[in-house]
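Structure ticket #2291
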Amino acid sequence: MRFGCGFGSRRGPKPQPFNRKQKRAFVPKNNAFGLRPEIVCGLTMKLEFRIPVGLYEKALPAEWSWDERLSQAAQAGYDFIDISIDESETRLARLDWPAPARAALRRAIANSGVPVLTMCLSAHRKYPLGSHCPEIRAQGLEIFQKAIQFARDIDIRIIQVMGYDVYYEASDDETQANFVESLRRCVQWAGQAGVMLGLENVDNPYLESVEKGLRLVHQLNSPWFQLYPDMANLAAAGYHPPTELLLAKGHLVGVHFKDGRPGIIRGVPFEQGIVPFVETFEALAQIGFCGPLGVEMWADMDTTGNPLNSAIAARRLVEHLITTVWGGQTAPANQLITCPV
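Resolution: structure written out below.
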C-alpha cells in the first residue's frame, strides 16, 4: 500500500511529521472497479470514468476452481465476478463454509486481482420469502442472513434480490404481503452489515418491470435497498428496456447485460435477441449510470463449445457499446476526491 508523496514506501527519504489537519491523497492501485486515479500529490485525486464490467460465475465451467475461474476472468478483461448462490445444495453449502474455506476464496481474489463484487441470490426460488408456509419462509430468512454474513466476509458489495414472491407456488395477495414483510427484515440486516441489496425484475407478473420494482423500493424506503435491473428480462416480458431504465434514475446499483426473446430470458446469444443494446446503453448514459454491469451467460447453454471464448466475445461487445455511447468521457474536472488523514 502506498500513500501520496512517498508515504508508506520502504525506500526513499524518511517521512517527516505532518500536520493532521492537512488533507493528503490516498493513492491506490487499480481498484476493484477498474478506476485508475490521477494523483494530485498531497491534495486530491481525480478518477477516470470507466464502467466496471463483471462476469456471471455460471458463464464459466462449474468444475473450475476459484483460482482458475478468477484468473481466466481477469485474462478475459473482466473487472469482477458475480457469484451464484442458487437452490442447488452445492452452491447453498457455500453459506456454511468454515473460516478456512472463506479465507481460501479471499486469497484467490487477492492473487487474481478480480473481486467477487456481486452475489446472485436465487436460492429463494426454492425457499421463497413470500411462501404460504411459515417454515419455508423461515428457511428463506435464514438463507438471507447467511448470505449477508458471507457477503461481509468476502467483501461482496451487492446482493441481487430476485423479485419472486414465490416461484413454485401460486402467487396471491398473501404471498406478496409475506414477501414485503420478509424483505423489510432483510433490508434491516443488510444495512447493519453495510451490504447493498439490488432488486432484479424477473419473469413473474408480480415484479417484471422497473416500474413495479420502484414501487417496492419506495415502499421499503431504505438506502440499502435499490434496483439491479435485467435488460433482457424487461424485453422478454414485453417492456422497452431504455424506457424502463430511464425510470430508475437515482436508484440503480447495477445492471444485468444479456439478450432475450419474447418469453425467453436465458441462453439467447448476444445480438440474436430483441434487446436494443445501443438504445439501452444510451438510456444508462442519460441517467448518469456508472455502476457495475454484469454480463450474464451460462456455460452449459453455450452453443459454440467454448464458453471462455464466448465470454471474451461478450466482453468485447460490451466495450464496443460503452465506447460507442460514452466515448472517451471522463469525470467532470471539478469532481475531485479528497481523503482526510
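Closing remark: The chain has ten helices and 13 strands.
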